[in-house]
Amino acid sequence: MRALWLLAVSGCWRGPTPPSPAPVPAVVAKPAEPDEPCRGSNLQIGPVQASCADHGGDEAIPEVVHIELDASPMTVDGGATRRSAIVLRNTAREDVEVSLDDSCGAASEVSAVIVDANGDRVDITGPQCGMGRGCSSSTVTFTLRPSGTLRIPFVVDGRLETYDADCQPQRVGAVPAGQYRLLVYSSVKEFDVPITIY
Prior knowledge:
This protein is mostly beta strands. It has a single domain (39-197), classed as Immunoglobulin-like. It is 5% helix and 40% strand. The strands form three sheets. Strands 1, 2, 3, 5, 6 and 8 form a six-stranded mixed β-sheet that branches. The chain has a four-stranded mixed β-sheet with strand order 4-12-11-7, with no helix packed on it. Strands 9-10 form a two-stranded antiparallel sheet. A hairpin with a 5-residue loop joins β11 and β12. The longest helix has 9 residues, at 2-10. The chain starts with a helix and ends with a strand.
């Protein structure tokens, strides 16, 4: 006892060691749900869109879905091509359903032409052909998760468009270098943006 008293007085004995605090359980983040063909956060219109067909539905794009053009500023080398896309983005905090007109495959069809200051096409040469077709009404429906996007890809072409004797479109040569405007037509929105051809 005297030995314990001496240790306590001298400060060398501090009593029993307190128990260690319980370990804090690690917080495991919930994994993101994988994308499905017609529902997800990073969707792209393509071959899978047939499985998203809704033959009885109507076209509907809610106001919370913003539509924008990918790639700015727009540039392309004469005689070359570049990829771009129309992007539909869900700005809401919940899932949003988007239905697009797909008559004649319209949901995935994007036309991009290059015009000068007078509105005349500079990416075309030779005689042109007129084509028409009839199609039944159809829509494709996608569900975008919060902040999710649906991309409609297309190609900006720096070559000249022409048609052969069978009215089949061909691309030849190069659009002359200069400052022009790119007109983008689609079933969801049209764009008119500056483009530079190098």
